[in-house]
Design brief:
By secondary structure, this protein is mainly alpha-helical. The chain has 25 helices and 2 strands. The chain has a single domain, classed as Farnesyl Diphosphate Synthase, CATH 1.10.600.
């Protein structure tokens, strides 16, 4: 595993080169329009924004030939239908609220990544043939316990396939040895589970944040009230847990279960201390930003006292990035890794492989996690920028300082405060922008500063690392689509 990680680290020169260009970027004044920020991100991706860009960047951009929707569009079309079948309840109110957010058209970024990663990595493990002989015929709707014990009333529950006898999960007759770059039934179900967990978190978040809108429509709490919204989110997590168990893979169950814990940890970090010098609530190495990221994107801008007497501290910035991983990136990273596990790159098959084959499978699995981790962080950083530019009509939820109204000090604010340590920002952050005029004052200071431009650079860095992680995988239509999706995330306008 260590050798695999060494191989992956060796594939990151372009990302590091981008990071080394931070000094010249930091002195550029932030634009007053989102379009200029997008142009900056596009220039960085194409190699035009940094003298340290390599030919790798240009090649990556030129390879973006496959549109993600073209590659997995058919699977995404059936996603909402399949989820609706999983979510049915005999109680009409619970049935309606559980399906409420699925009636609106979302981005489906998370399930799209799962499906694309499955297509990009299936067939790469030496355990593929043996594992998928069982997996192709596996029916993820077959219960494990007797129905009378489960007492799980779902009037819309899908009927298990006749090709998979109850309890067997295997149909060797349907297996094709050459079956590569396709999506297995278990991987499709994983994509659905990923979206269910995400939507459950939205139901809970909208209660916590008292959000009036979601995806351009009235939020669930506005329609159903807080109590039903919380219960609806809990119901979604319950249904997701059942579907997860029926994948019959202990490693995937472990990965996706910890996601739920990560979401809660991240929310508590955000709720209890918007900007804090507290010791992070988890010591998981994957959730803590690397030292060079803190050096390049925080410490290089200026030397400030570490006691917070003159602006935010490095620990505050670390706290923000860690919260970002837990709330957003963990689900994307662990679901992407789970897709490769279901394709034969998991620990359950490791004992059957030679050392070289084990190392290769571990490298594929780790690359999928790294892609998801950094794409997820980049996604949230762009979200935080959009809050200062996008309108409610385009963003689908209150914008123009919505995070500030919730008392949240995101990366643009921290960067602005670092640049202007003697301004009122410190006081505004301390009282969570709670007084009249606080939000407007913070907006003006952020737009005056380099905060948005520096946040765009940080998002681009994470997008570059995500792209570099994909170099472990062989060229394919699905890999190309993942590269393009990565680009779309950092240049999106909503």
């Amino acid at each position: 595993m260590n050798k695999a990680r060494t191989t992956l680290r060796a594939s990151l020169p372009a990302a590091r080169a981008v990071a080394r260009a931070r000094t010249s970027f930091c002195v550029v004044r932030a634009s007053s329009t989102w379009s200029d920020v997008v142009d900056t991100a596009k220039a960085a991706l194409s190699g035009g924004g940094s003298s340290g860009s390599s030919s790798h960047d240009t090649q990556a951009v030129s390879s973006l030939l496959s549109d993600p929707l073209d590659v997995v569009g058919r699977d995404l079309t059936s996603l909402r239908y399949n989820i609706a079948a999983l979510l049915g309840s005999g109680h009409p109110s619970l049935d309606r609220i559980a399906k409420y957010y699925f009636n609106a058209e979302g981005k489906h970024v998370r399930p799209m990544i799962v499906l694309l990663m499955a297509k990009a990595t299936n067939g790469l493990s030496a355990a593929w043939a043996a594992e998928r002989a069982a997996g192709v015929g596996e029916d993820a709707d077959v219960s494990i316990s007797p129905a009378r014990v489960l007492n799980d009333v779902n009037p819309n529950a899908p009927t298990p396939s006749a090709t998979a006898p109850a309890g067997s999960g295997t149909s060797h007759a349907s297996y094709t040895p050459a079956l590569q770059h396709v999506i297995l039934p278990t991987q499709r179900r994983l994509a659905e589970i990923t979206e269910m967990i995400h939507v459950a978190s939205l139901l809970h978040d909208d209660v916590i944040d008292a959000s009036p809108l979601r995806r351009g429509a009235p939020s669930a709490p506005n329609v159903f009230g807080n109590k039903l919204s919380i219960l609806g989110g809990d119901f979604l997590l319950g249904r997701a847990s059942v579907a997860l168990a029926r994948l019959r893979d202990a490693e995937v169950t472990e990965l996706m279960s910890t996601v739920i814990a990560n979401l809660v940890e991240g929310e508590v970090m955000q709720m209890r201390a918007q900007v804090s010098d507290q010791v992070p609530v988890t010591d998981a190495a994957s959730s803590i930003p690397a030292a060079h990221v803190l050096d390049d994107f925080w410490g290089s801008y200026g030397d400030l006292p570490d006691d917070g007497s003159a602006g935010p501290t490095r620990v505050m910035f670390q706290y923000y990035l860690q919260k970002t991983y837990l709330k957003t990136a963990s689900l994307i990273a662990k679901s992407a890794r789970s897709a490769t596990v279901l394709g034969g790159c998991g620990q359950s098959t490791a004992a059957t492989l030679s050392p070289a084959e084990r190392e290769r499978a571990a490298a594929v699995s780790h690359a999928s996690y790294m892609y998801g981790r950094h794409v997820g962080i980049a996604f949230q950083l762009v979200d935080d920028m959009l809050d200062f530019h996008a309108t409610t009509d385009t963003f689908g939820k209150p914008s123009g300082g919505a995070d500030l109204q919730l008392g949240l000090a995101t990366a643009p604010v921290l960067y602005a405060w670092q640049q202007y340590p003697d301004s009122l920002l410190g006081e505004l952050v301390a009282r969570r922008f709670s007084e009249a005029g606080d939000v407007q004052a913070a907006l003006e200071l952020v737009h005056k500063s380099d905060g948005l431009a520096r946040t765009a650079r940080l998002a681009q860095y994470h997008a570059d690392v995500a792209a570099s992680a994909l170099s472990v995988l062989p060229p394919s239509e699905a890999r190309s689509a993942l590269e393009k999706l990565n680009q779309q995330i950092v240049t999106r306008a909503k």
